[in-house]
Amino acid sequence: MPSIPSQINGVVVEFSDDVVNDVSQPLITALNSCIAPTLLDPGRPRIFTISKIWISSVADSHDMPSRHAQHKAVDISRINGMKIAVSYPGDPLVKTAVDSIQERFEGCLFKRENFGPHFKKKHGAPFSVSGHNDHIHLSVD
Amino acid sequence: MRPLLYAALFSSLSIVCIAGTLQVSTTDASSDVALVDSLRHIGGEYRWDSAANRYLFTKKEDMERILALQDETTGIQTLANCIDDPRKSDTTLGSKRVALGILCYEALTQLIYYEPTNPNGDIARDWIGYIVPNASIQQLRSAKRAWIKVIKSGSYKRL
To answer: How confident is the model over A41-71, as pLDDT tens digits?
Structure first.
């Protein structure tokens, strides 16, 4: 099983200490299409540089049958060192990055759960689920 | 004078609570009191954000600075233990002061999160540990029990 690399599209990927980062290939493919190093600020004519993301969980601290335990889910909780829990939606860079990751994931072939502060969707349709205002949870079929 | 008063009050409350309800043990009582007291007086307010479709707390950055002064593991335990604290804080929602337990929950969920899972492996739609700023004392008590169970099992993740 492949591991999430330490860089995706030039963006450094940092992991929480206890993360087991072996995942299914479709999830790596999805991350490759979601993580972008530069983003246009939708509110002003400027470009944000995304230097690093923080992965708080992959296949760890979850029991079967969780999609995490199946190596089919990933949680992202920080952008450029800033916690989503603290900086979303107040910080424009964090908001733009989170919104971008979630919107790009919707274009992925094997998308399943896409829960975060921007929206909550399952298989592309709005889905009511509590929490997830503090991190992005992405899973694949 | 006031911190000493709170220290004495909180210590006696802790003894009663430990005898009567579920708690996770902490190691530094004075640190616990200082953290909880800081949260009680952090101020700010909960404002409805229609774009986010939820209440947002206006002093998240200040809260982060308070949390940065704590040992994280002890802080997590302290915060979980005070989720059902009904004392009024200086933080408001509309014209009302919210319970201190709401601030403890706000701070705890700035440090850690938990993902409840369905039998099919997907994230569960709801979990009793999630609360809103106008939660009732019964909801706070239920949330506290849920978080303490999660903390004891180690099934939470750090943000």
So the answer is: 998 899 999 999 999 999 987 778 899 999 9
Assigned domain for B16 exists: no
| Total number of domains constituting chain B | 1
Nearest CA distance, B129 vs chain A (angstrom):
9
Is the pLDDT at B10 greater than 60, yes or no?
A: no
The structure's pTM equals 0.89
Window 106-145 of B, Cβ < 8 Å to A: 109-110, 113-115, 117, 119-127, 130
- Between CA A123 and CA A73, with CA A63 as vertex, the angle to 5 degrees is 35
Instruction: Give the structural domain span for B47.
Output: 2-9+26-158
Residue B85 belongs to a domain: yes
Q: How far is A78 from chain B (nearest CA, A)?
A: 7
Domain annotation covers residue B19: no
